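=== RUN LOG ===
request id: a7f3
mode: sequence -> structure
chains: 1
length: 78
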Amino acid sequence: METPEHAYPSLLVLVRHGESARNALKQGKLEVPDTPEARRLAELHDYQIPLSPLGEQQAAAVGAFLRSRSLSFDKCYD
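=== RESULT ===
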């Protein structure tokens, strides 16, 4: 049985989100410290937690990298 030419993507790009504000609060530890900011973030769904300043820089860097490759995407999921 022959596989159609376009059955599988020729390139798959996976990008993980940058550092979140919650992860920044952990400062490399497994647990989030008990602070007012941590309690506020604990009330949010994961998708509602903003990126930290470092996460914003990481997102900008991956965006610039992908743009520099002049890639064309058929699908994009967020």
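=== NOTES ===
Helices lie at 21-26, 36-42, 53-68.
The chain has a mean pLDDT of 87.
=== END ===
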